[in-house]
Design brief:
With 121 residues, the protein is an alpha+beta fold.
Length: 121
């Protein structure tokens, strides 16, 4: 499976939607980008699609909007994530992004991954 690559405009749109806040950071992921809070991903970029990880009730409400849909590869969409409509501006997406950030921030922080140097030999 070939992963879609975001354009510079896609990356700029994603960056404009990522909220500032304690523990929020972005990281590259397989040629795309993810936004994390305390190590928990709450937002991702997959090609030109921006996806949010939302609790079930919020996810169901977002899916009612035209243009919202599954997020990730067609054959294996990411569980719990919804693609926001492509035409949404930052104001449209902000309440949904904040809901995703708040849900991820409520999770226990993820410990940084350690590398086992013995296993790597």
């Amino acid at each position: 499976m070939k992963l879609p690559k975001p354009t510079d405009a896609d990356r700029e749109r994603f960056a404009s939607l990522v909220p500032n806040g304690p523990g929020v950071e972005t990281k590259p992921m397989f040629g795309n980008v993810g936004a994390f809070v305390n190590g928990n991903m709450f937002m991702g970029l997959f090609g030109s699609d921006v996806g949010l990880k939302l609790p079930d009730p919020d996810r169901e409400r977002l899916l009612e909007h035209p243009g919202a849909g599954p997020f990730g590869p067609d054959d294996r969409p990411m569980s719990g994530y919804v693609t926001i409509p492509a035409g949404w501006r930052a104001d449209d997406a902000a309440p949904w992004v904040e809901a995703a950030r708040a849900a991820a921030a409520a999770l226990p922080p993820k410990a940084p991954k350690t590398t086992n140097k013995r296993a790597a030999r």
